[in-house]
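Changelog note: in this version the structure field was regenerated for every chain. One regenerated record is shown below for reference.
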Amino acid sequence: MASVEQINIKNFKSHSSFHSNIEGSQVAVFGNNGIGKTNLLESLSFFSNSKGMRGNKLENFFQNKNEVKSKFLKVDCVLKQENYSTNISYQLVNESDQINKDFFIDNKKSSQQQINGLINFIWLSPHMDKIMYEGLSTRKTFIDKLISNLDQNFKRNLSDFKKLSDERILLLINNGDKKWISIVEEKMSKVFYKILLVRRQKILSLNSLSKNYLTTFKKFQINIENNLEEIISQEDKCVEEIIKMLFINRSLDESVKRNTFSPSIDQINFFDCNKNLNAELCSTGEQKSILLSIILAFAWTFKQKHIPFIMLFDEISSHIDEKNMVNFFNEVAKLDTQAWYTGTDKKIFQVIENKAFFIDLA
């Protein structure tokens, strides 16, 4: 089991100074709104994502007191894994409006990637609820981020496709060499196909984990399709069709200055297996449960691959009734790792009162 045993914070958002020795696998942080509960979890999420769990710019992480922002912040943690402990930390320094970011392992300068080799943080925050109602593009982006955390090749393919797409548009706009445009489109098509294929493989895995492991909480199914679905199993035929579509769309893409045919053609929808309904037709509480279940299934992928992780759940009780909260806590316990929760009232965590370590920020 991975866990944070100690955390020290200096000048991170609302926390000018915070220190706590942590005990146990479940950590409940409670207090009034605006007191810094989310900021505490976000200070941990930064170890896995340099924009934090809310996608902030670096300058927004510095503590702001009396309208004067600090120029230095540091978060330092003692991380326990199996029978040993490691110190991980990061610091941001703002000098002449240039922000330098450094990570450390046992006080030796390191990288975020090296820290991710030791520990990963998986989270769900209230602003992510929009995934359930903002449309296909938001759901696709969410799924792609999950897959990218598990598969660096997939992340690289997304980046490569964008670079090739930008190159193609520049060639089209500048009336570039048609032969070179064809070469770029062929490269794009092969990367395009890999993205479609891996999306389906990973989604199939998440669906299987939901069916086999989420025994007491909400079961889901992620459905994915596009107009190439019938030929996706045939690589050569699918790549050939993608090349054809890119060729057909050249004039349109030149006009609108973007690629109108891309891996975003995938339509991704969530299905509530308990209610036998598409998520769009479910209540807000049921939608939140589906989202939590997807995060739990994602965590099971890490567990099966023996990748150490810690979970962060901000305002966990929003839209979730007491019965489902009990079931949710039971599912988290099966993952055998540390989980952090925030809430405005300690009563929210009654079901784990004898198991959790409480941090009162009141």
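Spot check on this record: The CA atoms of residues 71 and 96 lie 10 Å apart. The first helix runs from residue 37 to 45.
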